[in-house]
Automatic annotation (TrEMBL):
Start and end residues of each Orn/DAP/Arg decarboxylase 2 N-terminal domain: 36-281
Protein keywords: Amino-acid biosynthesis, Decarboxylase, Lyase, Lysine biosynthesis, Pyridoxal phosphate
Entry-annotated residues carrying N6-(pyridoxal phosphate)lysine: 60
Organism: Thalassovita mangrovi
Cofactor: pyridoxal 5'-phosphate
Gene designation: lysA
Assembly description: Homodimer.
Protein name: Diaminopimelate decarboxylase
EC number: 4.1.1.20
């Protein structure tokens, strides 16, 4: 459920007509709903009720300061994967002890910044990283709280580019080697083992892969405790999928996910951390774009939009589907026609949808890409020198621009000319 609905024939973001925002900020732009963000955060929080838990929002899904602040004020912690994200989380007022640091390539500088600014735990992904964190922590005279991310070798049954829990993926250490790696961690005076971490992929539409992975984590918890490690925290990653089409997909609900966690891990007495990103932000955002031209090609018609793959790369990168709807509600009886919906970028990959059935659309009409809140704005670029598009946050009947569109001068002036030119 989200808060982008038609009222009286027009698409609204909560209580604001999308056309009104477009008139003020121009197209294309991203628009987020506060109520949807909070609703999704609370669904996870409630799903884990009764267990000691923290929901650490995976902020790589959508990391605008206003989004982080909205979620942090509701009680969310953050999962960060870079020094930049760590700095963003701190800037949004998230306390260090609610920030977990994931990622396979943490640098010494990133480790130092997080140890100095405060951190809940590092999720370690390799032995070399473990040795380096130990050195950095000792150089600062502190102990770094750590989990080791284990790779349980389960098939997440999701898109290959976002599956992370198979043995051939670059993430974590093979679960079969975990005891050995934890033994080494226990020898390093700069580290303090607090638990285990696992994250098997994104956009999972079935609970079974999670269940298999968590079962292996439960087994490992017992084994590591036998080895003398103080395992009291389990970070279970993110990855719960969302319905990208309203018709045929019904991924498991957070409440079902929570019940499964309780079943598999509830008797271990561990604090549970989860790191959802997509399910919190995905359906909380739309991208609004204008039809620039309707072009008739040979045997097919194209809708050429002012938004492009640099603004929303998911279709080009993952063959992802987004529902695309006009912001004026079509008549129920309106006849639909197939269009290829494309952006203006000079790449054939700049195609949002092929042969998509759409009601009649004309140049100048606005359309909304649904479910664009996660991995949308954060993955955008200025390819073709197209300015990063604005982000807008709606709350009830209010809206605010939370990132403005840069001018061409601002873009150009980021370049510098060497003295010899
Ligand atoms: C990307 C990622 C997440 C979030 O995944 P979603 O599918 O957006 O929920 C959580 N944890 C880690 C370590 C990640 O890399």
């Amino acid at each position: 459920m989200d808060h982008f609905l038609y009222h009286n024939g027009a698409l609204y973001a909560e209580d604001v007509p999308v056309a009104e925002i477009a008139a003020q900020v121009g197209t294309p732009f991203y628009c987020y709903s506060t109520a949807t963000l909070l609703r999704h955060y609370r669904l996870f929080d409630e799903a884990l009720a009764g267990m000691n838990h923290v929901v650490c929002y995976a902020m790589k899904a959508a990391s605008n300061q206003a989004i982080l602040k909205t979620l942090a004020e509701a009680g969310a912690g953050m999962d960060v994967v870079s020094g930049g994200e760590y700095a963003r989380a701190i800037a949004a007022g998230v306390p260090g002890d609610r920030i977990v640091f994931s990622g396979v390539g943490k640098t010494r500088d990133e480790m130092r910044a997080a140890l100095e600014g405060g951190i809940r735990q590092f999720n370690l992904e390799s032995e070399p990283e473990m040795e380096v964190l130990n050195e950095v922590a000792l150089s600062l005279g502190v102990q770094a709280p750590v989990t080791v991310r284990v790779n349980p070798d389960v098939d997440a049954k999701t898109h290959a580019k976002i599956a992370t829990g198979k043995s051939e993926n670059k993430f974590g250490i093979p679960i079969a080697r975990a005891r050995e790696v934890y033994a080494r961690a226990a020898q390093l005076p700069g580290l303090r083992v607090v638990g285990i971490d696992v994250h098997i992929g994104s956009q999972l539409t079935d609970l079974e892969p999670f269940r298999l992975a968590y079962r292996k984590v439960a087994e490992l918890t017992r084994a590591l405790r036998e080895d003398g490690h103080d395992i009291h925290r389990l970070d279970l990653g993110g990855g719960l999928g969302i319905p990208y089409t309203r018709s045929n997909e019904a991924p498991p609900l957070p409440i079902e996910y929570g019940a499964m966690i309780r079943e598999e891990l509830g008797d271990l007495g561990c604090e549970i951390e989860i790191e959802p990103g997509r399910l919190i932000a995905g359906n909380a955002g739309i991208m609004v774009s204008k039809v620039v031209y309707v072009k008739s090609g040979e045997g097919r018609d194209f809708l050429i939009l002012d938004g492009a793959m640099n603004d929303l790369v998911r279709p080009a990168m993952y063959e992802a589907h987004h529902d695309i709807i006009p912001i004026i509600e079509p008549e129920a009886a309106a006849e639909q026609r197939p269009y290829d919906i494309v952006g203006p970028v000079c790449e054939t990959g700049d195609t949002f949808a092929k042969q998509r059935m759409m009601p009649p659309v004309a140049a100048g009409d606005l359309v909304a890409f649904r479910s664009a809140g996660a991995y949308g704005a954060v993955m955008s670029s200025e390819y073709n020198t197209r300015p990063l598009i604005p982000e807008v946050l709606v709350k009830g009947d209010q809206f605010a621009v939370i990132r403005s569109r840069p001018t061409f001068d601002e873009i150009i002036n980021r370049d510098t000319i060497p003295s010899w030119l």
